[in-house]
Automatic annotation (TrEMBL):
UniProt enzyme class: transferase
Active site, renumbered: 348, 407, 430
Protein's recorded name: protein-glutamine gamma-glutamyltransferase
Catalysed transformations (reactions): L-glutaminyl-[protein] + L-lysyl-[protein] = [protein]-L-lysyl-N(6)-5-L-glutamyl-[protein] + NH4(+)
A Pfam family the protein falls into: Transglut_N
Originating species: Lingula anatina (Brachiopod)
Signal peptide feature range: none
GO MF term (any one): protein-glutamine gamma-glutamyltransferase activity
SMART domains listed in its UniProt record: TGc
Keywords: Acyltransferase, Calcium, Metal-binding, Transferase
Transferase listed as a keyword: yes
Length: 772
């Protein structure tokens, strides 16, 4: 009986596990591995039971992800995001410590480790990653993306593959994740699902929601990204450079303002992403750089969307900060993020500096651009129109257009797939609130190639930007019979020079040829005609002037107004006019010379000097000089922030009624800052080792400088700090010594701005190299 029972038992076991008369273990299925169990059975020779290994199916144990190692150091270096201070322990807007952020760029793989709470078996366990974007993620908008991790094929868009399973308990799963090059830019949440199939056919899913966000940015290093920039040195300048130079002054005396963009400083990325969250751009559009930069040009100004900066050109800055005091964008963004209110105040270079910060922070190549003699066309007819009465006096109420001594905006780099071929590359945007576009204060992006060709019908805001760089200034004068005639056409006045900082150099680069053909060439005139033909505004005078000639009848007196080169604020200067009689008859001239303090926007502030002359020129008399002297007592108390002035001249010839009106814009120069490294060698500076820097300048004014302050900042060296100093008497030195401690190695720039109640707009920059 015993032997029969044993034989029956083993035959049942073999039949159940596929033995078919053979002693062998059951083959485990691909998803349900059996555990080895040992039972007793007889030997062939003795018939006595012995131990024999037999596999019996056992339930697969589910595992759950308990944490994610984002390998921040490794991924940050590979994605060119290691300069973001937020990838280390950093301080928020209220100086509260924050954990490192995981910041990567789209279209480029990154590696993460999934830390499981048990042994991971890639044959029996599946992993699914779910990325969510925005408040209401949807698969149809690609703001909700879910996919299984594959062990084989690497996807071309969203997807992932298992690289390895490691650890003593096989619980660390290394995964390579791919994102598409058109991925939405901003904060994503990441959920990890581990999936196991049970014996009864049901599926068990265990979800881990990681508490921290995944930050995905634009990728100028990725060939498939719309903002791809092929040149390495251009990426270093237009994406990675933390400081730069913004050009101001006048066309004859161009100077620069050093600027700390600070796009990698701790809280800046958080602030920039908050701007995108609050600008009204749908989450589904957050992968499109064209729509994003258009929104940036709107949200950086305050008038219609509670944006970052309030513009103020009045000269009265009570309740806010004088625009010339700012030395960078970081302090502005910090104040905006802390208060949730627009910051007071900014002017064009400040708006441009903040735009550069926001764009570079998000990964969009960007530069600040300055246009000297920049037209502000208010009526959209692509000309700068001015009107004079019969006596040669401007009719101010008719002159809504203006000519700014300079205006600063931005270029951003991207493809424009919806435009005709040939319009990729640099695009102009402008955050200074000047004119409405689609009901809000914004401008661009507009292709530079379109601007150059006069293709103002291509989006966005082509007529306005074209007029800034290539419109003609036309002066219309009322005649004695009350008719109107073109008194003068200035074809080369507007867009005198467009410039930006040169790539990886402190020098200025002239980029005028990117915006316009050479003045007076057939190509330039043709572009103007194309632009005018596509405007929606009709004005008989302004459209028809292209066929008019200036009225040259009775023009027998020639005039030459001397241009001033370099005048130091606090000095006297002369306004000179040279007149010559080309006729064989006597001529009588009524001459008016004057000096006016102006804002850099061309708006008159104060007429500070005027003198009238009655001049008689003999037949053929040449080069008679008429001049006035303007003293500091005349202008000092009236200067605006930019210390800019305008020399004016008006002449009427009694015998012929010839009219000559001329203006010359210039700015008064201020001293440069002097730098001295105290008690050490500028060429021997190291991370973590403090050094002292002394800087200053001599007061050039004949009166004291009051309420004086230096503002010092520099990425990797110094957060923006203010240093108040004593009042500075005439001829004495305003100076300060500061201690700086380098945080990171490499070339660093120290940016300094000086502020006081008097017109003395001094600033400076010095570079140092920090060793490890």
């Amino acid at each position: 009986m015993y032997r029969e029972y044993i034989n029956w038992f083993w035959s049942s076991v073999y039949r159940h596990y596929g033995g078919a008369g053979r002693r062998q273990p059951a083959e485990p299925t691909s998803r349900h591995r059996c555990s080895n169990v040992h039972v007793y059975g007889p030997t062939a020779t003795t018939g006595v039971a012995e131990r024999a290994p037999v596999e019996i199916e056992k339930e697969v144990t589910a595992v759950k992800c308990k944490d994610i190692d984002f390998k921040i150091d490794q991924n940050s270096k590979e994605h060119h995001t290691d300069q973001y201070e937020a990838t280390k322990t950093w301080l928020g807007v209220n100086a509260e410590p924050q954990k490192p952020w995981f910041i990567v760029r789209r279209g480029q793989d990154f590696v993460i480790d999934l830390c499981m709470d048990g042994k991971f078996d890639k044959d029996n366990h599946d992993v699914k990653l779910t990325f969510e974007f925005g408040a209401n993620p949807k698969p149809g908008e690609e703001t909700l993306v879910s996919f299984k991790v594959s062990a084989k094929d690497k996807p071309k868009a969203w997807g992932a593959e298992i690289l390895s399973v490691t650890g003593n308990d096989q619980s660390t799963v290394s995964v390579s994740v791919a994102t598409p090059p058109n991925c939405k830019v901003g904060k994503w949440t990441l959920n990890v699902d581990t999936i196991v199939k049970k014996k009864d056919g049901t599926v068990e899913v265990l979800r881990y929601a990681h508490p921290n966000k995944v930050y995905i940015l634009f990728n100028p290093w990725c060939e498939d990204d719309q903002v791809y920039m092929p040149e390495k040195d251009h990426r270093e300048e237009y994406v990675l450079a933390e400081t730069g130079r913004i050009y101001t002054g006048s066309k004859k005396k161009i100077r620069f303002r050093p600027w700390n963009f600070g796009q990698f400083e701790d809280f800046v990325l958080d602030c920039c992403l908050s701007l995108l969250d609050n600008c009204g751009l749908a989450p589904s559009a957050r992968g499109n750089p064209v729509q994003i930069v258009r929104k940036i040009s709107a949200i950086v100004n305050a008038p219609d969307d509670n944006g970052v900066l309030v513009g103020n050109w009045s000269g009265n800055y009570e309740g806010g900060t004088r625009p010339t005091k700012w030395a960078g964008s970081v302090a502005i963004l910090l104040e905006y993020c802390k208060t949730k209110k627009p910051v007071q105040f900014g002017q064009c270079w400040v708006f441009s500096g903040v735009v550069t910060t926001v764009c570079r922070c998000l990964g969009i190549p960007c530069r600040s651009v300055t246009n000297f003699s920049s037209a502000h066309d208010t009526d959209g007819n692509i000309t700068l129109s001015a009107y004079m009465d019969a006596e040669g006096e401007y009719i101010d109420s008719w002159c809504s257009d203006s000519l700014w001594n300079f205006h600063v905006w931005n270029d951003v780099w991207m493809c424009r797939p919806k435009l005709p071929p040939g319009h990729d590359g640099w695009q102009a945007i402008d955050a200074t609130p000047q004119e409405l576009s689609d009901g809000v204060f914004c401008a661009g992006p507009c292709s530079l190639n379109a601007i150059k060709a006069g293709q103002v019908y291509l989006p966005y805001d082509g007529p306005f930007i074209f007029a800034e760089v290539n419109g003609d200034k036309v002066i219309y004068q009322q005649q004695v019979d009350t008719s109107w005639a073109v008194q003068k056409i200035y074809k080369e006045l507007v867009g005198y020079k467009v410039c930006t900082k040169k790539v990886l150099s402190p020098d200025m680069e002239d980029i005028t040829p990117l915006y316009k053909f050479s003045e007076g060439t057939d190509e330039e005139r043709a572009a103007l005609k194309v632009a005018v033909s596509h405007t929606n505004v009709y004005s008989g005078l302004n459209i028809d002037y292209h066929g008019h000639l200036e009225n040259n009848e009775n023009q027998d007196i020639t005039f030459l107004m001397y241009e001033r080169d370099s005048i130091v604020v606090g000095e006297d200067f002369d306004i000179d006019l040279i007149v010559s009689n080309q006729s064989s008859e006597q001529r009588t001239l009524n001459v008016s010379l004057g000096a006016t303090v102006v804002y850099y926007t061309g708006v008159y502030k104060k007429n500070v000097a005027t003198d009238n002359f009655h001049i008689v020129l003999a037949p053929g008399e040449k080069e008679k000089k008429v001049s006035i002297t303007v003293s500091p007592a005349d202008y000092l108390d009236h200067l605006a922030d930019q210390t800019q002035m305008k020399a004016r001249c008006k002449v009427r010839v009694e015998e012929t009624n010839q009219i000559f009106v001329e203006e010359d814009d210039f700015d008064l120069t201020v001293p440069d800052l002097e730098f001295e490294y105290v008690g050490g060698d500028k060429n021997d500076l190291h991370v973590g080792q403090p050094f002292q820097l002394k800087f200053g300048f001599t007061n050039p004014l004949p009166k004291p400088l009051t309420q004086c302050m230096f503002i010092v900042e520099g990425p990797g060296l110094q957060k923006a700090m203010e240093y108040k100093i004593r009042d500075v008497p005439p001829g004495e030195k305003a100076e300060q010594t500061v201690t700086l401690t380098p945080k990171t190695p490499g070339e660093k720039n120290i940016i300094i701005s000086f502020d006081c109640q008097e017109p003395c707009d001094v600033n400076g920059i010095d570079s140092v190299y920090i060793e490890e």
